[in-house]
Write a structure and sequence with these properties.
The chain is 29% helix and 33% strand. It is an alpha+beta fold and 222 residues long. It has an eight-stranded antiparallel beta barrel.
Length: 222
């Protein structure tokens, strides 16, 4: 299991030129469809938990706590405040267990369930999970000499474009080194400003499901 530390940024027509100038190497271009699921009452997303299906694979993104290094300075550093951190769970039985813990769906017989297949989606209806977002993204990915740093340029099919600087760290590891790598990369890209940039989901909900978006804003999830 890993933790994704990520900073989003506004990309434009000059971004590709900048990437070339700083020596970034394009490692691929791909297109993928994301489908997100929650209950009608938003039990998962109100807890900042994001259940996603991408290319027939499931993933649950759960928030992580701020480490002691940030707290010691009396709050998050500027670099930390501009980044998001999510624990990424890709094992389907573990995903289902985490969701059941939230939903308090407990098998009365106490038996252990057989490991489900990726194709079997009956568990969605069992837990009253419905799809609330569905969009396709075209992504160009780049790497730098800085070890472990990936830069993605995303173009979503609902007309939103955003860049991401991403570093993966082992679960439980200190994320400070990841934050430093992201900050150095942001400097190379000439990024300025001290406000977080909206991600694709934030914009998608704002445009397509404003009530859901408003609830998440009230709970300070978005």
């Amino acid at each position: 299991m890993s933790v994704e530390v990520e900073r989003k940024f506004v990309c434009n027509a000059d971004t590709l030129k900048t990437l070339e100038e700083i020596g970034a190497v394009c490692v691929g271009r791909r297109e993928f469809r994301d489908q997100y699921f929650d209950t009608p009452e938003f039990d998962l997303t109100l807890r900042d938990m994001w259940l996603r299906k991408r290319k027939a694979c499931w993933e649950l993104k759960c928030p992580t706590t701020v480490n002691g290094t940030d707290e010691a300075s009396g709050g998050q550093s500027k670099a930390a405040a501009l980044c998001s951190r999510y624990r990424e769970i890709t094992n389907l039985p573990e995903i289902q267990q985490r969701v059941r813990e939230v939903m308090k769906v407990i098998r009365e017989d106490g038996e252990t369930e057989a490991s489900p297949s990726q194709e079997d989606e009956s568990w969605l209806s069992e837990m009253n999970l419905v799809r609330f977002a569905d969009f396709t993204t075209v992504r160009q990915s780049f790497t730098l000499e800085e070890n472990g740093v990936q830069i993605d340029l995303d173009q979503a099919d609902f007309g939103y474009q955003v860049g991401e600087i991403e570093v993966l760290v082992p679960d439980g590891a200190d994320a400070q080194s990841a934050l430093e790598k992201i900050e150095r990369t942001a400097g190379k890209l000439g990024l300025t400003g001290d406000q977080r940039v909206d991600g694709k989901m934030n914009v998608y909900l704002q445009r397509n499901h404003p009530e859901h978006h408003a609830k998440l804003r009230r709970e300070h999830v978005l």
